[in-house]
TrEMBL record:
One protein family per Pfam: RVT_1
Protein name as annotated: Reverse transcriptase domain-containing protein
Species whose genome carries this gene: Parnassius mnemosyne
Lineage top rank: taxon: Eukaryota
GO biological process, one term: DNA biosynthetic process
Alphabetical list of SUPFAM superfamilies matching this protein: DNA/RNA polymerases (SSF56672)
Reverse transcriptase domain location: 1-162
Amino acid sequence: MSRAQNGCRGGGRGTKEPLLIDAVIGKVVKRNRRNLSAAWIDYKKAFDSVPHIWLKKVLELYKVDCTVRDFLGQCMGQWSTILCHLSERMTAAENHIRIRRGIFQGDCLSPIWFCLSLNPLSTLLEDSGRGFQLRRGGTKMTHLFYMDDLKLPPVALILWNC
């Protein structure tokens, strides 16, 4: 998992780490009298929008055991929900709706699987070589993720022509 993803990292402090990083960057910018702009991207209905084919591909990319991949693929094929209306009786065929996109929320695997689905984007941003550098020769912050919330510093914005 990318270091920039703070959403489901073991031993992480959740949103505190990105806030601390923001505070440090703010102090450096103020001390050096530099301008700073950034973009925040929040994916709308993020968990609901990940295609199942991509969820399967991510498991393959990260070399998850094929038995686990097959099991999760079969489970996804059976995901469904049922609509019930109190005043009308519906047949089983009418109220059974298959889930063809997205990932369930509420189980323990979903957050890490979701974060893995966004991890290739983190890799692209990290490999770009662009980012906010606190000091010469220091580490560059290319972006920050907290689950589906993405923050891009200005140099990354230039890279993506924003």
